[in-house]
Amino acid sequence: MMKIEKPQTHSPIVLRYVQKELASFATDPVEGIQVTYDDSNITTIHATIDGPEGTPFEGGRFNVRLFLGREFPGMAPSAYFTTKIFHPNVDPKTGAICVNTLKKDWRPDLGVRHILIVIRCLMIEPNPESALNEEAGLLLQRDYDEYVVRAQLLTDIHARPPDAVVHNLVISSQIPSQRVELQQQLLLRDNTKTDKLIDEFTDKLIN
Fold first, then answer.
1. Domain match, 112 and 138 both
2. Around 72, how many Cα atoms within 13 Å sit in the side-chain half-sphere?
3. Domain count of the fold of the chain
4. What family classification does the UniProt entry report for this protein (predicted)?
5. Domain check: are 143 and 68 in the same one?
């Protein structure tokens, strides 16, 4: 489960800086990234990132949340995917994102815009060497095709509109019963049963 961060108190100078940067998304938008925020609490920033073309996340829309701690911009924000995603650098339980920009490479002048661009780039170029999802990291290195199958499947389930799922989900015709049941659960968004079906389906597809 994603960690719940409490609203933080920042200096008026920092708050004005953040407000100005967030407002810039309206006048100078970033392709594939939309940002929303509450003026009464801009320490929590919500963003939607479109899955980049040519990746297993293409066609999906992924929600991301940034939490600006009390020491921001001296310290990097915390960043989480709130949409479930199969990615080496995203914790499968909490959605926490591991990227150097949020750690050792952070600089106070980078800002929210830079962070969100880096997160979208991470969807294009994962880094299995610093994996939070070890399974995804190993698959990416050892069996890229299988990694793509798993990542696309999770994208179809969690990041696509329900009416787009069936058209984009590629399932072997050799297992029609599993295909029909999985499609039904996708449309119903029954995540508990869907997770079990994903495992069963993946085993059958690979083996």
1. no
2. 26
3. 2
4. Belongs to the ubiquitin-conjugating enzyme family.
5. no
pLDDT digits (tens, 9 = 90+) for 141-177: 999 999 999 999 999 999 987 655 444 544 433 344 4
Q: Look at the alpha carbons of 8, 11, 12, 16 in this order and tell me if their dihedral is positive or negative.
A: negative
pTM comes to 0.76
Q: What is the mean pLDDT of the chain?
A: 82
Q: Is the peptide bond before 73 cis (omega within 30 degrees of 0)?
A: yes
Catalytically annotated residue among 22, 35, 97, 98 = 98
Return the half-sphere exposure (C-beta side, CA atoms, 13 A cut-off) of residue 81.
Answer: 29
| DSSP-assigned letter for residue 97 | B
- What per-residue confidence (pLDDT) applies to 43? 87
Last residue of a domain, one of 90, 106, 129: 129
Residue 138 lies in a domain: yes
pLDDT at 15: 84
Domain of residue 169: give its range.
133-206
Residue 62 has pLDDT above 70, yes or no: yes
156 and 66 within one domain? no
CA 199 and chain centroid, separation: 20
Q: Mark whether 66 and 151 lie in a shared domain.
A: no
Dihedral, CA of residue 164, residue 125, residue 29 and residue 81, to nearest 10: 60
- Does residue 98 have an active-site annotation? yes
